[in-house]
Amino acid sequence: xxxxxxxxxxxxxxxxxxxxxxxxxxxxxxxxxxxxxxxxxxxxxxxxxxxxxxxxxxxxxxxxxxxxxxxxxxxxxxxxxxxxxxxxxxxxxxxxxxxxxxxxxxxxxxxxxxxxxxxxxxxxxxxxxxxxxxxxxxxxxxxxxxxxxxxxxxxxxxxxxxxxxxxxxxxxxxxxxxxxxxxxxxxxxxxxxxxxxxxxxxxxxxxxxxxxxxxxxxxxxxxxxxxxxxxxxxxxxxxxxxxxxxxxxxxxxxxxxxxxxxxxxxxxxxxxxxxxxxxxxxxxxxxxxxxxxxxxxxxxxxxxxxxxxxxxxxxxxxxxxxxxxxxxxxxxxxxxxxxxxxxxxxxxxxxxxxxxxxxxxxxxxxxxxxx
Amino acid sequence: xxxxxxxxxxxxxxxxxxxxxxxxxxxxxxxxxxxxxxxxxxxxxxxxxxxxxxxxxxxxxxxxxxxxxxxxxxxxxxxxxxxxxxxxxxxxxxxxxxxxxxxxxxxxxxxxxxxxxxxxxxxxxxxxxxxxxxxxxxxxxxxxxxxxxxxxxxxxxxxxxxxxxxxxxxxxxxxxxxxxxxxxxxxxxxxxxxxxxxxxxxxxxxxxxxxxxxxxxxxxxxxxxxxxxxxxxxxxxxxxxxxxxxxxxxxxxxxxxxx
Lengths: 371, 259
Ligand SMILES: Nc1ncnc2c1ncn2[C@@H]1O[C@H](COP(=O)(O)OP(=O)(O)OP(=O)(O)O)[C@@H](O)[C@H]1O
Ligand SMILES: [Mg+2]
Known about the structure:
The complex is a heterodimer. Chain A is α/β, with parallel strands linked by helices.
């Protein structure tokens, strides 16, 4: 099709009654790349995929594939392959019959069915009812269905869900291979770490709105900030305050971790040591760290998480435990509660949080296209 | 655009590769034939106990179809499952992603399943007829007698249409459980009970099953039943209107709603 913007969404909005699942989402997906579609639970990834496939009608906005709305594509199964839900198979039908019924729809010869069964490694269970399939086998069957028509555009909704490490590696390589063949690959996931390895480009959404649209390289260089972990003697909290003040004065940024350690950015390690020495503060730890992409991703989406887990208090279930000085926890030290909302993630590199402005003021605005 | 022939072929593959097809259609046939045969044998031995009026309107053809009252339920289950399992399994999304033209998808599916139900329905009614007549002894009739062939073919049409009607209802309700929960009590209880209640039966005779079953009667008002304000073909016409309405409803739901 030779189109630069193979999948293009413009102002896509979907409401289910009072619930807005997707709001004013605009993005495009290019051929020849793997585009990762990231977002927390309930952020609207599957809803967006269903709208791309013409299954759900957008409340407003539109989305096209190769310039056409999905429902107007000539012979859609030969152009677009999708894995939406691995369990969406009649359990009483064998894997082979399931794929055969899909192949016949698009005039795909039956040999192709056996071919894709081989590709996904299900040839030995092809005649078995899919009811007995494990999650990973179901996922493979769904991938087989997507590959059936040898389509130019592929959509995968959480394809690695339920796969073993070997399967994850296989999916990762498959996506890359498909993209290298010039196809358009759009794949959703919860895991930033997985996408960093698989995708070339990222589209991140939260609460149905666009949070980021950038290349993986940009994301990594913007977010793999180094930081130092600094620990002062727990018995002397005033030392910790003294050091914090000195570090801030020297232009550093300091955040505290739940266990009382400090995360410092903007000041190199030797300088931290010198500052501590000058302030007459003893250090119990001074170590270099690198923030993980997962942390950066969580920081980006933390304002947009719908379902947040909380500590299970077990208030009525637990027997009162005899207090004892735990390993590394002096008895008199009050335990710092773990408050996930508090920003103890790696602070962004000074003065360049690429999303903060977006996420707060104009969440639906697409960032400037670098080209 | 997916070609209609391709969709028909695919739907045929879907139907023949699930076991529910075999067991629902087999029970429709077996239950109808067996129960019809049992009733024919019973009536043959107790014919003299029938009232004068019942004997005068004795309809050997209609009697041999008595098993349909129960057998049609298996047809209902067949029709509901053909459409309903697309929804319960989630397969509907895969299907509609492959056939974006929803009318083509739905009507191809119903055409294939309806044709199969019709074939099984015809086999059922012919088998029921021949076995029933064999058991009725001297009260029997033959296929060559007036209107008998119409009634026997009509029996097959009736079974097929019940299945198609159920498919439309399942497409409207998008759930096998809900559809069965409504259709089975309706055909098995509500319709039968209402037809015995004085005022209600005026309405009940326009229900799809009651109107449609007129086509199977050779003797008008067989076995001294109520006089209906329509003939056999009129009755089938009423049933066809019900079927068309359920298909239209099913289509509109599929077209309008998100999958
Ligand atoms: N058919 C529907 N009816 C009502 N609400 C819906 C429907 N489909 C999705 N939603 C709501 O829309 C929101 C987005 O759901 P969606 O499934 O698209 O999220 P997701 O990003 O795929 O989440 P996950 O990572 O858990 O798969 C959720 O709040 C969900 O409850
Ligand atoms: Mg999802």
